[in-house]
Amino acid sequence: MNNSKLSRTGLYIVIFLVSLAVIYPLYVLFLIAFSPVRYTLDARYPLQYPGGLTLTNLLTAFKGFNLVGPALRSIETAFLVGAIALVIGIPAAYGLSKLPRRQANTITTLLFLVNMLPAIVIAIPISAQFISAHLYNTVPGLALAQELVVLPLSVFLLLGAFDSIPRDLEYQARVDGAGLLRTVYLILVPLAKAGVVSTFLLAWMMSWDEFTFAVILSPINPTLPIVIYENITRGNILASSAFALILTLPVVVMTMLLQRYLKGEFLAGGLNG
Amino acid sequence: MKEKYIPFLFLLPALLYVAYFSFYPTASAVYQSFQTPHAHFVLSNYKGLLYFGLSEAILNTLFLSAGALAIQFAVAFVVSSVLIREFRGKSVFTALFVIPFGVATVVAGFSFSNIFATTGGYANSLLRIFGLPPLNWYSSWGMDMLTIMVSDSWKNTPIVALILLAGMTSISPEIYKAAALDGAGPLRRFIHITLPNLKGYIAIALVIRGVSEFNIFALPLILVGYRPVFLTTMTYEFYSTTASVYYSYAAATVLLAFVLAFSLLVIKMRENH
Amino acid sequence: MNCYGTQKAASRSVLAVGVVIVIIIAAIAGYFVLTNLGHASTTSRVNIKFYESLAPSEAAYFQGTIIPQFESQYPNVNVTLVNLPSASQVATDVEALEKGNDVGASLVGIDNLVVGELIYGNYLMNLTPIISTMEPSGLIQSAVNMINYENQVYKAVYFIPFRSNIPLVFYSKTAFQNAGITSPPATYTELLQDAQKLKAAGYSGPVMFQGHGGASTPTELYQWMVQFGGNPFLFNDSGDVEAFQFLWNLSSYFSPEYIHGYWGSYVGLAQGTYQILDYQWPYVYNLLTTNASLGMTNQTLGVYPGPAGPVNDNHLLGGDVLVIPKGVSDLTQIEEFANFLLGAQAQRETLINLSWVAVNSAAYQNLPANFSAVGTALEQAVNTGVFLRNPTPWITQWNSLADDAWTKIIVDHASYSQIQSILNAENQQLYEYLASNYNSTVAQQYEQNAYKPISVS
Fold first, then answer.
1. Most exposed residue of A209, B220, B233, C120, measured as fewest CB within 10 angstroms of its CB?
2. Angle at Cα C216 formed by Cα C210 and Cα C222, nearest 5°?
3. How far does A149 lie from chain C, in Å, by closest CA?
4. C98 or A22: whose pLDDT is higher?
5. C179-182: which pairs have CB atoms within 8 A and are 24 or more residues apart?
6. Position B31 in a domain
7. Could you tell me if residue C193 is inside a domain?
8. Closest to B108 in 3D by CA, of A146, A248, A67
9. Which among B255, B252, B230, B257 has a CA at the least distance from the CA of B239?
10. Residues C264-307: pLDDT tens digits?
11. Which of C340, C372, C388 is the last residue in one of the domains?
12. What's the CATH number where A95 sits?
């Protein structure tokens, strides 16, 4: 009994420490954004608690910097990336679900290999191609490039969603006379609704955070992560804290809501076949 | 006959997309790494890179990846051992723990550059509260590496923990009970039961995280700039100074080579088991 | 497995997420509409994009004061400032726009450091035909010399200096008093002695340097090497070697912050992290003295041209030049804007408010009585002598090698006896680079000291 009580205390200590470590960097972001500058950046040893709360930092940042441009840019790109993930991913996942296991696994591995090719290796030659194709510094161009980061995982999630639909339903629809495309888009996709929507949201989130392609392919009209980076390197910490807040809030909310889909089973189980 | 090819037809958009936006630029980058304005197949770009510290970049990248993976797996094992049990507030802790996964890398870089500073900063201010002397978090190569490893692990440990957790839930608790009855202590149970059963999951997490560690880009860029040099920051540094864009292709090719070698290594090891 | 139940719960949380997204988009769209209500764009307005790379305070001043002044004088022209993160990015983007035939109506302000690349790549319009409408009547001597140099070397004019930038040395008067130093160091020997005195008085890392790498470090090294009498491009002539040897000695007194030092480092001077900032661009003077939480004043903050090198006391003339990419539209409006930027009004305002060294001599008339100490320092620096870096297209390669030398000699602290051989190796590298990427003539000219700093005093 003593043993179990000790391990119980140990458990709660670990939980407490890990929770602190998880929150601390976000807490620092909160402090820098909402605490007067003399307690945070202009102080050599900043206060660990809010010396005061003020909106001045945010207001100065919003007044002095173009916030709407990069935010719109990020939003447009993210939506396009999510849409392309579905347009390419749904047929691909359906095709994979029809293939024998071994072939499907090979192709899925190929897609994940794509994910592994370093973004910076691809971004530099692509930027030269995009310039001549008039895609440099455009939303469609950036979305097409960011899709590389997103596609393998999207196909994988959609495959899992399609696999969970009982085969009988599909055969029933085909027997009832529905053509192949109708079956896929009007019957299977609605049944896999949860998977489709979470794929879209995951793709959206990953594009929202994406940095490497954005910094190389869209420098003149940047997305939010690039603006944050630029402001950090120029020493404009307050502005970057304001932008960081805007970048982070939607995603933190979404991550918490999506966390049941990020559980290991979806990621690891499928690959094990 | 037609039925057999239909799945591949559905896969076609995805495969075409991957071929054009991933394989073709990669091949282009490798090809151009052997070019200069005057010659077509020379090694002078690589020789130039060696002069600028390519071997250091390789060593730094390898060391950082190894260290970051070690930290992430160590902490992930601890956290997943916690999450496998039932306790009050488990769902809150799970939701909290996943948040760093959703925070953009740039934002993490922002926070950690304010936490870890050469003089002052939040970490040093914490140390002062506990009566400890402040540290220069960039005072040496080792400190630089440690700072980047810790910042990187904050964001990436959750995904490793989730994968390991998925694996742990698949191990039946009966085995543990039997081993405990036979007199095996917790450490022996971990080494002889948990680890072997998790091999597949560890391999997957290793591949996903390992490749991402080789590609680490935004964090070192924000925290240390171009020194200590990594393969990705070296590529970007030469890309952004237009006089030496061919050097960046060479650096990108070296990075690609390491990523491929690492993936093949892990896949081979998994097959052998 | 309760498929249906899981699906229902999943649908609900997914719906919640969807609602959150819609709310965010509606909020941003609403904000966008509200802030753009006043900007009715008619087709008769010309939209000029002005590409530059400015510090945040400078960009804010441009957008808040300079551009509105121009737009009120020329009501049918709209100017958008495109503020890019670095000078190299400006060059890259101009090249990208040219290659994609997307130039439109653009005026570009680019660091004189990288303009050589654009000239060599043939991306710039020859300004000779229109220079009479662009060039104001009274350019300061260094700007005139620059244009003469262009005519001599390129047989054309591709750029016009529009803001100059001269580095100055900033120091904490309080700290100097505490250490018993009565006046800032006039020579480098005195600088070393003062650093020792400051250290003895308890200031452990008194000297700050722009040591982060990128473009800042090679730029600063360039001036140091010239003041020791060397041609910085060569790396290994006697002046260059002596400069590095001196820095090797001085580095014992560097603040640990120096590895992060760049053109935006100045806060440490107010916080007491370092006591003498050698060097930094003059715009930080206003930032240090007007920021209440930093709390520096004329009494506590000192600024002056800096210690004189063993051979000369000349200063690097950095700063930006105006160029027009080939194939722009609306050239008349672009000329109007360029003329405005070079005119007395704009030049005077940026001189007073941003400490930009004006190229228009009319800007120096009737300066306010309290035109700060920094103005005096700038004048002294200009009068002593200024030089320009030779605008070659391969200067960024030189930057990378200078960075490499800095890392090996100072950051990694190679032994003193290795300094000469490291610099010899850099020289060799640049020679080989020129031979394989340009031609042997350029390489030989380089070795024979053809690319010297351009003296403009």
1. C120
2. 95
3. 22
4. A22
5. C179/C203
6. no
7. yes
8. A248
9. B252
10. 889 899 988 999 999 999 888 888 888 888 888 888 999 999 99
11. C388
12. 1.10.3720.10
Highest average pLDDT, of A179-193, C125-139, C329-343, comes from C329-343
Gap from B210 CA to chain C (nearest CA, Å): 29
E-strand stretches of A148-203? none
Q: How many domains does chain A have?
A: 2
* Cross-chain CB nearest to C213 (options B42, B118, B226): B226
C235 and C337 together in one domain: no
Q: pLDDT digit string (tens) for C401-446? A: 999 999 999 999 999 999 999 999 999 999 998 988 888 999 999 9
Distance (Å, whole) CA C299 – CA C321 = 35
Question: Which of C21, C37, C49, C80 is the best mutation test for A, with the most CBs of A within 10 A?
Answer: C21
Cis upstream peptide for C279 (omega within 30°): yes
Q: Which residues pair with C301 in a beta bridge?
A: C172
Counted domains in chain B: 1
Question: What is the residue range of A212's domain?
Answer: 67-272
Domain at C361, CATH number:
3.40.190.10
Exposure b/e, C73-101, CB count within 10 A at least 16 = b: ebeebbbebbbbbbbbbbbbbbbbbbebe
Decide: C386 and C314 in contact? Cβ < 8 Å. yes
Least confident range from A155-169, B101-115, C234-248: namely A155-169
Tokens 């530059």, residue?
A: C52
In terms of domains, do A221 and A128 share one?
yes
Q: Are residues C220 and C336 in the same domain?
A: no
Per-block mean pLDDT, blocks of 10 residues, chain A (273 long): 67 90 94 90 88 88 82 92 92 85 81 83 88 87 93 86 78 73 73 82 90 90 90 83 90 72 48 42
User: Among partner residues A32, A92, A262, which is closest to B14 by beta-carbon distance?
Assistant: A92
Could you say which of C370, C388, C406 is where a domain stops? C388
Domain range for C330:
46-165+320-388
**Residue C74 sits in the same domain as residue C128:** yes
Give me the number of domains chain C comprises: 2
Query: What is the span of the domain harbouring residue B135?
Result: 44-272
Note whether A45 and A92 are same-domain residues. no
With a CB-CB cutoff of 8 Å, which residues 92-151 of chain C face chain A?
92-93, 96, 99-100, 102
In a domain, C224, yes or no: yes
| Whether residue A13 is found in the same domain as residue A125 | no
Tell me which residue of A110, A192, A102 sits closest to A152, measured CA to CA.
A110
Residues in chain A closer than 8 A to C90 (CB atoms): none
3-state SS class at C77:
strand
ipTM of the complex: 0.87
